[in-house]
Structures are given as C-alpha cells and as structure tokens.
Amino acid sequence: MRSKVTGAKRWVVKIGSALLTADGKGLDRGAMAVWVEQMVALREAGVELVLVSSGAVAAGMSQLGWTSRPSAMNELQAAASIGQMRLVQAWESSFGEHGKHTAQILLTHDDLSDRKRYLNARSTLRTLVDLGVVPVINENDTVVTDEIRFGDNDTLAALVANLVEADLLVILTDRDGMFDADPRNNPEAQLIYEARADDPSLDAVAGGTGGALGRGGMQTKLRAARLAARSGAHTIIIGGRIERVLDRLKTGERLGTLLSPERGMLAARKQWLAGHLQTRGTLVLDAGAVQALRQANKSLLPVGVKTVQGSFRRGEMVVCVGPDGLEVARGLANYSALEAQKIIGQPSDAIESILGYSAEPELVHRDNLVLV
Ligand SMILES: Nc1ncnc2c1ncn2[C@@H]1O[C@H](COP(=O)(O)OP(=O)(O)O)[C@@H](O)[C@H]1O
Ligand SMILES: N[C@@H](CCC(=O)OP(=O)(O)O)C(=O)O
C-alpha cells in the first residue's frame, strides 16, 4: 500500500504526446475519455487536480498531414498553434460530458522565473481549482524562443507541481514506468517500483532519449521528479495505457515507479524560502499578529502590521519582526512596500477602496510564510 499516493490531496497529472496521440494518429479521444472519467472521480474524492497536457505539436502535425516532427522552430510553432486548439477543445468536451469544465493555461519560462508573474499564476491556478475547474496547462509554444523553452512538458509539470505545492506528480507515459534499462533495446529490463528521486544510480538507467513524438524520454522524467522533490512532492512515472491507471493509483496499488523526495513538504518549502531568496524589507507586527502567526499558523493580514521598512515589490521576501524587533517569520509579500504602507493597520476589505484594486486579503499568505 502506498500511503503517500493514497493520501495525496493535490495531484498534477502530466500526459505526454506519445500517449495522447496514439503514436501519431491524431488525438486519441477514446483514451482521453477514459482518463477524464478517472480524473472526475478523483475530484469527487476530494483530490485537487491540475492537468499538464502535451500533444499540441503532435495534434497539429496530424491535422497538417505531417508524418515527422519538423525541426524548424517556425514550423513547430505553427503546428503547436493549430494543435493546441484541438487539444483544449477535446479536453473541454470530454470533461463537459461529466458536467465539469476546464481552463487553458499556457506558460513560458518567464512566467515562472519572475516572482510577480509566479505569484499571479499561482493565485489564478488556486482560484480555478477552488472553483472546481480543471486547469489544462501546456507550454506557450507559439511565443517561446529556443533559449527559454522548457522543451519537454516533464519539466513544466514539475515546475507546476512546485507552483501549486502538489503532493503528487503523476507522469503518464507510454511505458509501464522507469525500467533499469531502456526497454526499447533491452527486452529483459525490469521495472523499478520505488526509489529515492536523488538516487544517483538512476542517471545511468534513464540515459535514453524520447520517442518520435515526445521530446523528453526518461531523463527529463527523472529530472522532473527531482525538481518536484524540491517542494516535497512525490512523483509516479507510470503507463497511461494501464487499465484504470489513476483509479488504481488512488487505491494504493503498487504500479509504476514511485520516486520519493528526500524531505517532507514543509521542510522542503522552508529550505526553499530560507535558502534561495534575498530579503528586501521588514514588516513590524503588533503583538496580536505575532500570536496569530506563531500560535494559530495564520496568514499575515495588513491590519496587524505597524510599520513597513525597505523597498520590496510584490513577490519579494520580507522579514516579519515583533514589537521587540525580534524576527518571527519571513515570507513573500503580496503587495509592494509602497502599497503595504497604505494598507497597514486597515482591515482587508478596505484594500480595494484604498488601492483601487485588491490582489489578496493577506499581506503574506501562510503558504508563503515560514516561522523562524
Ligand atoms: N530506463 C527507461 N525506462 C523506461 N523508458 C525509457 C528508459 N529510457 C528511455 N526510455 C524511453 O522513454 C520513452 C518515453 O519518453 P517520451 O517519448 O518522451 O514520452 P512522453 O511523450 O510520454 O513524455 C519510452 O518510450 C522509452 O522508450
Ligand atoms: N508543448 C509541446 C510538448 C512538448 C513535448 O513533446 O512533451 P512530451 O511529449 O511530454 O515529452 C506540445 O504540446 O506539443
């Protein structure tokens, strides 16, 4: 029984091109319907779900009658923009059969490396999930340039898992999981059921590249598992054609390859927040806010802040100190220093009339806050 999988509340499911397009013969709507049925069941079981779907280039190629993946960037981008339409239409109509809706999100590298855009993407995704809609994410293939491409959606899916703080990343592919050698040339290869994502012996195993349609192969899936592990997520690499694959994962069946993070989610997030960002300012809290953060694990609201020091932008790291000047926590600010100056001491429902808009009711959301 895999308790980390059965207990996971937030899943990112990634479906690769080879699977989605039945090895190049256009979108496999029958297979999509079967996954959708299972994803709907997961949602009904209380799982929050984000879908990362490849297949735009492959769907566009089949529409254009192209049989081999073009290498010219402009042709790839043209194929992607044709295929993306069909891809999201197919997902929307399939979820629609169950009375569920989808939302298209196309991301580029810039969206995830710029902290302000990162927070915006995250807040939109959260809202969509709360609304019961399934976000369908792909790379924004038509605008990216070579230097800034994710290129493979395994990496994109891992960054999305970081973004939404998923507990589980499920990478559906055309093999049953990760084997101890590339099964295309090694019929004797054995499936690896469990490993630690950071196990260096996996590098040699995942050496081969992707198939004719996909780009990544196992190497990018392993890298994705390591990236996802940074925010404490587990990764499953598993065959998308295995019967009732998602249902069976949810019931704890030992299928596919489970790659575990070295640390739990909270420890991983703490390390990420503590280690990677420079602090840009200080918020001086009143005693009530200190207590709310320390004892009740609450978000920091503007009303509990006495003064703002420094110059920070939305998304940058600030230190929170108590009335005694001692550090209580640090976290990512939802408002810039200038905006924060105007809203401190005020109730959150006044933010909109003071600033003319309201991004979030919290000055620092508890998910982006680490107690010191
Ligand atoms: N150790 C390995 N175990 C399993 N598959 C491997 C391994 N090394 C390379 N591969 C290849 O990786 C392919 C899956 O990657 P890819 O074609 O990028 O699929 P997707 O479109 O699902 O991302 C498999 O078909 C397989 O041939
Ligand atoms: N964004 C591209 C996906 C890139 C890709 O090939 O990914 P994958 O099949 O997951 O290795 C598309 O939609 O065609």
Automatic annotation (TrEMBL):
Alphabetically ordered keywords of this record: Amino-acid biosynthesis, ATP-binding, Cytoplasm, Kinase, Nucleotide-binding, Proline biosynthesis, Transferase
Which pathway does the database say it acts in?
Answer: Amino-acid biosynthesis; L-proline biosynthesis; L-glutamate 5-semialdehyde from L-glutamate: step 1/2
At the top of the EC hierarchy, this enzyme's class is transferase
- Give every PUA domain span: 281-364
Where found in the cell?
A: Cytoplasm
List, alphabetically, the InterPro entries matched.
Answer: AceGlu_kinase-like_sf, Asp/Glu/Uridylate_kinase, G5K_ProB, Glu/AcGlu_kinase, Glu_5kinase, Glu_5kinase/COase_Synthase, Glutamate_5-kinase_CS, PUA
Q: Name one Pfam family in it.
A: PUA
Q: Name the domain of life.
A: Bacteria
- Give start-end ranges for the coiled-coil region(s): none
Matching entries from SMART domains are given as: PUA (SM00359)
Q: Which residues bind ATP?
A: 14, 173-174
Annotated signal sequence is: none
By its UniProt entry, which SUPFAM superfamilies does this protein fall under? Carbamate kinase-like, PUA domain-like
Family, similarity comment: Belongs to the glutamate 5-kinase family.
Q: Tell me the function of this protein.
A: Catalyzes the transfer of a phosphate group to glutamate to form L-glutamate 5-phosphate.
> This protein is called what?
Glutamate 5-kinase
* Native species: Pseudomonas kermanshahensis
